[in-house]
Amino acid sequence: MEIIFLGTSGYGITATRNLPSILIDKCILVDCGEGCLNSLYKYNCEVQALKAIFISHVHPDHILGLITLLSKIGNYNKDSSIKKYPPIYVPKGMKIHLERIIEATYSNFLNRNFRIKIIELELNQDNYLEITINNKLYHIKWVKTMHSPICYAFNFNDEVIISGDTAPFLDFNEFIKNIPILVHEATFSDEDFELAHKLNHSTPSDVAKIANDNGIKQVYLYHVPDIDENEEKGFVSTAKTIFPNLFVAHDGDRIIFPPNVDGQ
To answer: How far apart are CA 7 and CA 51, in angstroms?
Structure first.
């Protein structure tokens, strides 16, 4: 499985970071923050290769890239009378909100010839979602996080979990147990942990404790504040004493799991 960070900021677009978007195997998109389309071009990912989009929640920093992305996908189908778009999976009750956003921008993705398929994922998950893309089978699980509006964390093939936005919460422990790679938000520094929890977000040390307690192999922090490379060491210094295999993700970073024979 390959993970490409298209956007890693939790602080608006910065000089080096776009808003949250993560690409799995170049065909599954998790969230679509502003700047996502540009990142796809920048990191040599084909727009027409997208086969599924998962939205953790409908806060603007996670969805406002959808309009430009869908417009571009439609351009690849200009000779077809019915435009084909990847299905968009959203938390329970969020379909109507996403449709309203699309309608408010006067986009035509909801009319007959430009129909997009928005699928709500039930809150109480009885079975995992199973989809096949490019002859590969994906099992996707999810859990409601501690955030508002309703937000899901996603588990792909028991290999990688992407947290969405969340404060630490007890039920998350069972969901992530023994998962090799955890991609987790860290919107605030350790010094601001009270504010982080009040606003339903996490700090690096929050994530390190979760990883340390649940058999995680590697952690990549995203949805981070506006920090430069010099500030990153301080941002994760305490967290790395709790869980050494913790890293700050950057736009354009790629993870391949399991690693190849050269350890890359």
So the answer is: 19
